[in-house]
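User: F-box domain-containing protein. Structure?
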Amino acid sequence: MPLDQLPLEILLNILSYLDDLKPLSSSNKGLKSAAADSEARNLRSRLSSLTHRELLIQIWTPPAFFFPGNSKQHRRAPETNDLLSLLGNSELKPLVRNYTTSLEEKSELVKKMTQYLLSNGLAGLANFPESFTQELLIHLWSARERYGHDIDGYLSHLGDSVTFKDLCDGQDRYFSMQSPQVEGMMKVYYALSKKTLEHPFGPRGHDGIGLHKMIVRGGMELVLERLTRR
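Assistant: Predicted structure:
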């Protein structure tokens, strides 16, 4: 079997044994190259298989040091190809690996929440497509990323009379979403509010911003914890 077709785990085990051999043999160089190529293919496959990967990357953007010396690259939303282009850089590859893992964890959490919402027949969500529901949950979760740097400062400006609809109307808070998306997101929001918040939900009921505050403070991890605890 050619070196570049060996499983990555086997290649890495062999390399750990050969690392102390001096001088560096041509076989060792070949193994290192094969391991690097195998890992790059693995990361490329993981990134490509992510559901809603472009939206995830748009919201949870890679750290600026992924693109050293190229500030123009961060003047637009990054794309999957931006990350794939880094896989040839051995120094940045571990950063891409960790970032990919973080996106996979978010994707899995969204899938769990979607399964819960659609399997429990929550009001207003009948016949919601699975992929559409996942997209809406990601948009809701984005509030944590936008305001997490100053939670108390942001929330202090939201009065008790504010509703979630107020946050959506006339504001570019959700990446200029189309009207059907906003309407769908509000239905998901109301359903989650009823399942996660204690009665009477706050001053404005389930259409208030109690759930929004929860997401800003603890992300969807906290919302899923509340869902599964009930």
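The chain has ten helices and no strands. Residues 103-229 form one domain.
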